[in-house]
């Protein structure tokens, strides 16, 4: 038979279980986000790319999203600014190879910047999930005790 004390105890167990699951999932998101950012940063540093003199952030090592975007912008100004859009180039234009190499570098730098942003997002979502799990698990027992106190007062 379902009684208020049994339902409340069941709800506490479910809430604590869900809170623990959220804390585990949040922790996994944080670890994976930090790991992804570390891998991307390590790959950027391994290449030892220095931003060009005409980049928005000139003469620094590309090691984060901001410097990667800066160098990508410089490469874009070198290729797009010099040759125009790739689709507008003639098929036999000898600069197509230069343009494609620049495009490949630009895409790699932009992909690194986006990957670092996704890593930040994973860490943020993980932190929020972890905190919400702590609240859910932490408030389960006090809510159960309050519900039981009110139930006893009204039940008599």
How would you explain this protein's 3D organization?
With 156 residues, the chain is mainly alpha-helical. It has one domain. The chain is 79% helix and 0% strand. It has 3 helices and no strands. Helix 2 packs antiparallel against helix 3 (96-155). The mean pLDDT is 91.
Shape: rod-shaped
The number of distinct helices, counting runs of at least 4 residues, comes to 3
Low-confidence stretches: none
Order of helices and strands: HHH
Nearest-angstrom radius of gyration?
Answer: 27 Å
Terminal CA distance reads 20 Å
User: Proportion of β residues?
Assistant: under 5%
For the residues shown, what is the average pLDDT? Answer: 91
Q: Profile the largest sheet.
A: none
Count of spatially separate domains: 1
Total number of beta strands = 0
DSSP helix fraction: over 70%
Helix-strand makeup class: mainly alpha
Topology:
Blueprint: H1 4-47, H2 65-83, H3 96-155
Supply database-style keywords.
rod-shaped; about 160 residues; mainly alpha
What's the short story on this structure?
Helix content is 79%, strand content 0%. By secondary structure, it is mainly alpha-helical.
């Amino acid at each position: 038979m379902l009684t208020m004390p049994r339902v409340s105890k069941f709800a506490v167990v479910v809430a604590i279980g869900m809170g623990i699951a959220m804390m585990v999932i949040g922790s996994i998101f944080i670890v994976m986000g930090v790991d992804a950012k570390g891998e991307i940063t390590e790959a950027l540093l391994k290449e030892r790319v220095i931003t060009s003199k005409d980049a928005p952030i000139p003469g620094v090592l590309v090691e984060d999203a901001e410097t990667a975007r800066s160098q990508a912008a410089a490469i874009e100004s070198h290729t797009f600014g010099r040759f125009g859009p790739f689709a507008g180039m003639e098929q036999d234009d000898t600069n197509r190879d230069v343009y494609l190499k620049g495009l490949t570098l630009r895409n790699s730098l932009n992909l690194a910047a986006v990957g670092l942003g996704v890593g930040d997002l994973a860490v943020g979502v993980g932190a929020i999930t972890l905190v919400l799990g702590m609240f859910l698990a932490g408030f389960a027992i006090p809510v159960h005790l309050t519900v039981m106190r009110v139930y006893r007062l009204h039940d008599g």
